[in-house]
Design goal:
The protein has helices at about 1-15, 65-70, 75-85, 95-115, and strands spanning about 35, 40-45, 50-60, 125-130. With about 130 residues, it is of the alpha+beta class. It has one domain (about 35-130): Band 7 domain (Tetrahydropterin Synthase, Chain A, 2-Layer Sandwich).
């Protein structure tokens, strides 16, 4: 009885969970869900010497592309550092600064991925941005 319970309960949860489908927030939305890649926190100095820490999420679009990007995370992290390092502190301030940084990261990472014949990113989301002035 104990062995049946030990094996049966997890099996029921695993196979029973396949019947349960969580509905989307918008019922008629048929777009594919994002495949997020989360590189390590990026630390870089801006042109004017401000230390910036950024955490981003990259939407790879497909699970195959996500796997390919994860194999190149070190290089992608370097592209992120360059994107931050080429700015001044004033370029990062406010919502418009974050939007410009996000679009710049998307453009630069996609250029790198194109050079490696990998699929392009669909979006970049900046999760956190901290800076410390010298």
């Amino acid at each position: 009885m104990f062995i049946c319970t030990l094996v049966g309960v997890p099996a029921a949860v695993i196979f029973g969970g396949s019947w349960f489908d969580i509905p989307r927030a918008v019922p008629e939305d048929n777009r594919p869900l994002p495949e997020w890649v989360n590189p390590a926190e990026v630390r870089a100095n801006t042109r004017d010497g401000t230390l910036v820490k950024v955490r981003v999420s990259l939407d790879a679009g497909t699970s195959r592309n996500k796997s390919a990007i994860e194999r190149h995370l070190r290089e992608v992290g370097q592209v992120l550092e360059v994107s931050v390092g080429e700015r001044n502190t004033s370029d990062l301030l406010g919502a418009t600064g974050i939007e410009r940084l996000s679009s710049d990261i998307l453009e630069r990472v996609n250029a790198y991925l194109d050079a490696k014949d990998l699929g392009r990113l669909k979006a970049v989301a900046i999760q956190d941005l901290w800076y410390t002035r010298p």
